Structure formats: structure tokens, C-alpha cells
What we know:
Bound molecules: adenosine-5'-triphosphate
Main location: membrane
Helix content: 25-40%
Keywords: ATP-binding, Cell membrane, Membrane, Nucleotide-binding, Translocase, Transport
Pfam families: ABC_tran (PF00005)
Function: Part of an ABC transporter complex. Responsible for energy coupling to the transport system. Probably part of an ABC transporter complex. Responsible for energy coupling to the transport system.
CATH class: Alpha Beta
Family: Belongs to the ABC transporter superfamily.
CATH superfamily: P-loop containing nucleotide triphosphate hydrolases
Strand order of the largest sheet: 6-7-8-3-9-10
Amino acid sequence: MTPVLDVRGLAYAYPDGHQALFGVDLHVHQGERVALLGPNGAGKTTLVLHLNGILTAGAGSVAVSGLPVEKANLAEIRRRVGVVFQDPDDQLFMGTVRADVGFGPANLGIKGDELDARVMRALERVGMEEYVDRPPHHLSFGQRRRVAVATVLAMEPEILVLDEPSSNLDPASRRELADILRSLDVTVLMVTHDLPYALELCPRSVILSGGTVVADGSTYDVLTDDALMKEHRLELPFGFDPRTMARPHD
Ligand SMILES: Nc1ncnc2c1ncn2[C@@H]1O[C@H](COP(=O)(O)OP(=O)(O)OP(=O)(O)O)[C@@H](O)[C@H]1O
């Protein structure tokens, strides 16, 4: 089966010469939810920026459902790969929630009732349909993050990539977003430092460290490998022990 996301030997140096990725391999199949973990500066954001062609591979390749991420395919790649950035304000810039969520599909030529239906469907999936005619800047941070997820869902992507989805959310909003993400029938790659969130949501975790993949396995196995965790500066929150938790993915 062709992976939804197929990263092979990806290497990248920033223009200043800093080599951020050294031959990364990552294959994600349809319906998987995968956490991308790793210490600060590991290269996680650099990797994510290659998935929808914001950065171009120095060496190696990235393909989404068999389509190479390259200039000629960027419009289609950006429809297939929905990236939810850490700061929702990077994604919301229109006067109303409706206009923001409809922006991407409208650019694909969708209009009228079909556009309205797409917008409402995406907002319903994140529980924000009541806010459709509100200005995004009047919403709370957690509500703006949900709308940012809806802007991406409205494109009906094949893979949803989330950068730190739980950051700055209160515990109830964090839980509600987890419920939303679990309910979506979409492949998910989630960059996070929130290890309990990774355990709760993602059966599989990949650790990126120093620009290379150093572990790829079940989230439970990764988080309970004390030597691996220590070596790559990953720490569980005080008092949190996966061994004593219900194992959500068994
Ligand atoms: N524009 C840039 N120019 C030069 N080097 C950069 C640039 N952006 C990032 N880097 C470097 O590339 C490396 C990887 O950075 P990246 O942002 O991908 O890490 P990260 O894993 O996402 O970190 P964090 O967890 O802190 O968000 C770091 O050493 C960083 O300093």
C-alpha cells in the first residue's frame, strides 16, 4: 500500500549553512496517528515545512499519496496536506470565521451552497458551528485553534499535520481537542512536547533528534524506554508514569 506520507533520505541545510536534517525516513499509512517527538532544535518544524513544500528538500524526497512534493505539484500537495500551525493567528486573517474556513475551498473554485456546506461541515467537526459569523479575533485562543483546525479540514486533506496542538490550552480545551482529533477519520502527524497527549492520541511515535530519526515504535514502548528518553532529553511530567496508565491503544 502506498503510504500517505513517504519521506526518504530527506536532508536539508538552511541558507546559512546550518544542517537541520540528515537523511530522515518516515512512512505514515492511511488512518495512522503518529506523534513526532524530540528535543528543541531536533528538526521537527524543519521536517514539517517540507511536507507541504514550504521548504524544498536538499536531498532525498517527500511524497504524499505517491505525489512528489515539488513545485509543479504544490497546489495539489497543499490540498492533500493540511498543516495546523502552533499559533492560530498565523492561519486566521479574514473578518469572519466563515470567510476564514471558506478561504481555501473558495480558492479551489468551490462556491455557493457547496462552499457553505463545506464550511459548516468543517466547523461542526470541531464544535464551532455557532461561531460561523463571528470575527476570529473575538474568539478565545482555544476557540481560534479549533477554527484553525477547521480551516484545514475544509480542504478535506489526506493528512493533518499539527504543530503543538495542545500548547496554551486549558485542561478542558486540551481534552476536547483530543476528542475532536480522535473522532476525525484522517491520518494525523502531530508534533508535540506534550508526551501524555502523544500517549493518549497516537499509537505510534517517532523521535527526531539531531536531525535524524532515532526511534520509531509504539508510543508506550518509546515513552517507557528510560535510556532512550534520557539520551534525547525527553522527560515525562512529574508523577506521570505510562506504566500505571490504562493503555489506550491496546
Ligand atoms: N531559518 C533558519 N536558519 C538557520 N537555522 C535554522 C533556521 N530555522 C531553524 N534552524 C535551526 O535548525 C535546527 C532545527 O530547528 P527546528 O525549528 O526544525 O527544530 P524543532 O525540533 O522544531 O525545535 P522546537 O522543539 O524548539 O520547536 C535548529 O538547530 C535551529 O536552530
